[in-house]
Write a structure and sequence with these properties.
The structure is a single chain. The chain has 26 helices and 17 strands. By secondary structure, the protein is an alpha/beta fold. It has four domains: about 130 residues, no CATH class; about 150 residues, no CATH class; about 230 residues, no CATH class; about 140 residues, no CATH class. Strands 5-6-7-10-11 form a five-stranded mixed β-sheet. The protein has a four-stranded mixed β-sheet with strand order 1-4-3-2. A four-stranded mixed β-sheet has the order 14-15-16-17, with helices on both faces. Strand 10, helix 17 and strand 11 form a beta-alpha-beta unit. The radius of gyration is 31 Å and the shape is elongated. The two termini are about 40 Å apart. The model has no long low-confidence stretch (mean pLDDT about 90).
Length: about 725
C-alpha cells in the first residue's frame, strides 16, 4: 500500500512538471498567434461567433457559450493590457478562430491540471492548500455571483441613495448608467438580427449571379449561400459591434454630455493598465487570475469608436466598480456615505425576510436595554428567532483568486466570523434573561425566552464568498474560525433573495434553514453553492443521511441549480408567466401545510416541521392514514385516532378525528388529553398532535406540540391503561 502511494506521488509530480511546462508553451503559442491579429477584429468576431444567441435561449452552465465567455474575457484582458500590435492581418477568418480555440483549450486544460497536481508534501499544509485551490478553481471558471436581474436591481437600489454624488462626481446617475448599458445590449441584438437578414439577401443574390454565369449549380445553392452569408456576416463583425458617441446619444435618448461622461468612466484604450496592477498578463501561470480591466471598464475605445466584447458583464461591473469610486472619495464615505451604504443592506435584508414572515415579526436594529444594538435584523416567529447580522465586507481580489491565504482568512473573519460573534452575544442574552427586554424604535418587547424552541444566528453578506460559506466545516479545520463546531447560516444577499422568492411558507423556510445547518454535521465535505442546495432541497429534501452517501469523502452538487437558473431566466429575461420550482410533494400534502400555517396555534411551526421532515413515502402514508381515520369518524360518528412513532422513539405523531360540532375548544381538549396519554405510554421526548372536526371544511382544525422529558406518573399510567386501546401499528418512512 505504501509503495503504491509512493508511486502515485511520483506520477503526480511528473504530471505537474509536464503541466507546468505546457502552461508556458501554450501561453507563448497563444500570445504569439494573437499578436498577428487585429485585436478589435478578433474580439468582435469571437463575440459575434460564440456569445450571441437568441435572446430567449436559456444557456446552461455546461454550454459552450459559458466557456467562450470566459475565454473571451481572458483574451480581452490580455489584449487590453498590451499595446496595439503592428503589421497585423487585414482580416480574421474561420481558420484563425479554430487556431485560437485549439490553443485556448490546451492552455486552460494545462492550467487546470497544473493546479490539481500542485500538492504540497507537508501534511499540515494540505488542508490550507485545498482551500486556496478551491478558490483558484472557482475563480478560474465560475462567472457571475448572481442572476442578471438581481445585479441590475441591487445596483439601482443601493446606488440611488447616492444620486447627488454620482451626478457631481461621475456626471450621471445609476439609473442612467443602467439604461445606457441596456440600450447598448439591445442595439447589438437589433444590429445582429438585421445583419443576418442583410447577409442572407446578399448571399442569395451573389449565388443567383454565379448560377446565371454558369459558375455554380443549383443543387449547390444551400452550401454556397451559407458560405457567402457567413463571409458577409462575420466579415462585418467589427462594424456591427462598434458605435460612436453620437450613435450612443441617438440610441439612448440622453444628452451628449451624459453619454460622454458614461463613456469616459467605463471605456479604455488598448494598452490601459490599472495603476494598482501594473504587471498583469506577463506570467503564464498566473495570467488567468490577473486583474482584468474589463471589470473596471467593460467598453473598448479605438479610433473614436466603441465596442463591448462581453455585453452581459455590464450589470456585474456596474454593481462593483462604482463601489470603489465611492470609497475612494474618503470625505464623502466618512461623512455619511458609508453609513447609508451599510444601512441599505439591513433594510434590504429585512425586506427579503418580510417576504416569508409577517412584517410585524421583522425588526430592524433592535437594541439591548442599555441602548447598544442587539443585531441588525431580528425575526420573531412562533417561538423561532433569527438573529441576523449584515456585512457589506466583500472578498478582496486576492482572496477571490486564491492568491493569499492570509487575506482570505481575514476576509472570512471580517465578513462572517465577526458577525457570528455578534449574533452569539445576542443569542446568549436571550438565553440567559428570562424574560428578555428588547428595545425597538417605537416600543419595548418583553420576550418570554423560555418559550423559544430555536435560535438561528444568521450572517448576510453583500458580496459573494464563493462556495466557501455554504458548508463552513469544509474550511474550519484549516482556518480555525469557529470553536465548538458552531456555525451560522451564512448567505449572500443575492442568494437570500432567491431563497425567499421561491419558498412560500414560514415553516418551510425554517425547515430549509435547519436542513442547511445540518449539512455542517455530515461526515463528508459538501461542495455546492446556495442555489444548488436549494434545488436539492426541492428535489431530495437536502438529506444526506441515506445509505447512498455511506463511505463518501466529498459530495459535489455543482450545476444542480439548473431548474432554478432556467426559472429565473424565463421569468426575468423572457418575461414569462411561469410556475416556480417547488418541493416535490404528494397530492394534497401542500394543503395540509397551507391550512396549518393559517392556524393561530402556538408552536404550529414545530408541528409543520415534523411533517416536512417526513420522506415522500412518509408524507403519503400520513395523508392516507388521516383520510382513513376521518372516514371512520364520518361513518360511525365516533372518535378515532392514529399514532406514529418516529426517530427512534424521539417523536410521536398523533391524529384524532371526531364530531366536535364546530367546538374547537372541545376538540383541542380531547386531542391534548389523548396526546398526554400517548406520550406517556410511548415515552417520546416530543409529541405532535393534529385534530379534525369532521363537520369542518378544513383539512385540519387543531395542532398541538408537546416537548418535555418523560417521568413516571402513577395517575397518568392508570388513565392510559384504562382509556387507551391497542391499535394496529403504522409506519411512516
Amino acid at each position: 500500500m505504501e509503495d503504491n502511494l509512493i508511486e502515485f506521488n511520483k506520477q503526480l509530480k511528473e504530471t505537474n512538471k509536464k503541466a507546468c511546462e505546457d502552461v508556458v508553451a501554450f501561453y507563448k503559442e497563444l500570445t504569439d498567434f494573437v499578436g498577428t491579429l487585429d485585436p478589435i477584429k478578433l474580439l468582435s468576431q469571437l463575440t459575434l461567433t460564440f456569445i450571441f444567441v437568441p435572446e430567449d435561449k436559456f444557456i446552461e452552465e455546461s454550454s459552450d457559450v459559458v466557456k467562450w465567455a470566459r475565454w473571451i474575457e481572458f483574451l480581452s484582458g490580455y489584449l487590453l493590457s498590451h499595446e496595439y500590435p503592428k503589421n497585423t492581418k487585414d482580416s480574421v477568418d474561420g481558420n484563425d478562430l479554430k487556431t485560437i480555440e485549439s490553443i485556448l483549450g490546451k492552455y486552460f486544460n494545462a492550467i487546470t491540471i497544473y493546479i490539481a497536481t500542485s500538492i504540497t508534501d507537508n501534511e499540515k499544509e494540505k488542508e490550507t492548500e485545498s482551500i486556496i485551490h478551491s478558490a483558484k478553481i472557482h475563480s478560474l471558471y465560475v462567472r457571475g455571483e448572481a442572476y442578471s436581474n438581481q445585479l441590475k436591481d441591487i445596483s439601482k437600489d443601493i446606488y440611488t441613495q447616492h444620486n447627488e454624488w454620482f451626478i457631481k462626481t461621475l456626471g450621471f446617475t445609476i439609473a442612467q448608467a443602467l439604461h445606457i448599458s441596456e440600450s447598448i445590449a439591445n442595439e447589438y441584438n437589433r444590429r445582429v438580427n438585421e445583419e443576418k437578414h442583410i447577409s442572407k439577401e446578399h448571399a442569395h443574390s451573389d449565388v443567383n449571379d454565379m448560377i446565371r454565369r454558369g459558375e455554380a449549380k443549383e443543387e449547390n445553392r444551400e452550401e454556397l449561400e451559407t458560405r457567402a452569408g457567413c463571409y458577409y456576416y462575420f466579415g462585418n463583425s467589427d462594424l456591427i459591434l462598434s458605435f460612436t458617441l453620437d450613435e450612443l446619444v441617438k440610441i439612448t435618448g440622453y444628452t451628449k454630455e451624459i453619454c460622454k461622461r458614461y463613456l469616459d468612466r467605463l471605456s479604455q484604450n488598448i494598452g490601459y493598465r490599472n495603476a494598482h496592477y501594473p504587471e498583469t498578463y506577463l506570467n503564464a501561470h498566473t495570467a488567468p487570475w490577473d486583474y482584468n480591466t474589463l471589470y473596471e471598464r467593460p467598453i473598448i475605445i479605438n479610433n473614436d469608436k466603441y465596442i463591448v466584447p462581453i455585453p452581459h458583464l455590464f450589470n456585474e461591473v456596474l454593481l462593483h466598480t462604482f463601489y470603489y469610486d465611492l470609497i475612494a472619495d474618503k470625505a464623502y464615505w466618512d461623512s455619511g456615505g458609508g453609513k447609508e451604504y451599510g444601512s441599505w443592506l439591513e433594510y434590504k435584508t429585512a425586506e427579503y425576510f418580510s417576504r416569508i414572515f409577517p412584517k410585524n415579526e421583522v425588526y430592524i436594529s433592535p437594541k439591548y436595554p442599555n441602548g447598544n444594538e442587539l443585531c441588525d435584523v431580528l425575526v420573531l416567529h412562533d417561538r423561532k428567532v433569527f438573529i441576523i447580522q449584515c456585512k457589506t465586507k466583500k472578498m478582496r481580489y486576492e482572496s477571490k483568486i486564491g492568491d493569499s491565504y492570509q487575506t482570505l482568512k481575514e476576509d472570512l473573519i471580517k465578513g462572517v466570523k465577526d458577525s457570528f460573534k455578534q449574533a452569539i452575544s445576542a443569542r446568549d442574552y436571550l438565553v440567559n434573561n428570562k424574560p428578555a427586554k428588547i428595545v425597538l424604535s417605537d416600543c419595548e418587547l418583553l420576550l418570554d425566552t423560555e418559550q423559544i424552541t430555536d435560535i438561528f444566528p444568521t450572517c448576510v453578506t453583500l458580496g459573494s464568498y464563493q462556495n466557501l460559506i455554504t458548508r463552513i466545516a469544509n474550511i474550519n479545520t484549516a482556518l480555525q474560525l469557529f470553536a465548538d463546531k458552531q456555525y451560522p447560516w451564512a448567505i449572500s444577499l443575492f442568494d437570500l433573495g432567491v431563497v425567499t422568492e421561491l419558498i412560500d411558507y414560514p415553516s418551510m423556510f425554517i425547515h430549509y434553514v435547519k436542513r442547511r445547518l445540518s449539512i455542517e454535521r455530515t461526515k463528508f465535505q459538501i461542495k455546492a453553492d446556495e442555489v444548488d442546495l436549494l434545488n436539492y432541497y426541492f428535489s431530495q429534501g437536502l438529506c444526506f443521511e441515506g445509505e447512498e452517501f455511506m463511505g463518501f469523502d466529498s459530495v459535489g452538487l455543482s450545476g444542480y441549480s439548473n431548474e432554478i437558473d432556467k426559472y429565473m431566466f424565463d421569468k426575468y429575461e423572457c418575461k414569462k408567466d411561469i410556475c416556480k420550482p417547488k418541493q416535490l410533494m404528494p397530492n394534497n400534502f401542500e394543503e395540509y401545510i397551507s391550512t396549518l400555517e393559517k392556524l393561530k396555534s402556538s408552536y404550529k411551526t414545530d408541528c409543520l416541521i415534523s411533517l416536512l421532515d417526513l420522506s415522500y413515502n412518509g408524507r403519503e402514508s400520513f395523508i392516507k392514514t388521516v383520510e382513513k381515520v376521518k372516514g371512520k369518524t364520518t361513518t360511525d360518528g365516533k372518535l378515532h385516532s392514529a399514532t406514529f412513532i418516529l426517530k427512534g422513539n424521539a417523536l410521536g405523531h398523533t391524529f384524532i378525528a371526531m364530531n366536535a360540532d364546530g367546538n374547537m375548544d372541545k376538540l383541542y381538549q380531547q386531542l391534548y388529553g389523548f396526546m398526554v396519554l400517548k406520550k406517556y405510554v410511548t415515552k417520546c421526548k416530543e409529541c405532535v398532535g393534529f385534530g379534525s372536526d369532521v363537520k369542518s371544511k378544513n383539512i385540519i382544525d387543531v395542532a398541538i406540540y408537546l416537548s418535555f422529558d418523560w417521568h413516571e406518573d402513577p395517575e397518568i399510567d392508570k388513565m392510559a391503561k384504562e382509556y387507551l386501546k391497542i391499535g394496529e401499528p403504522i409506519s411512516l418512512t
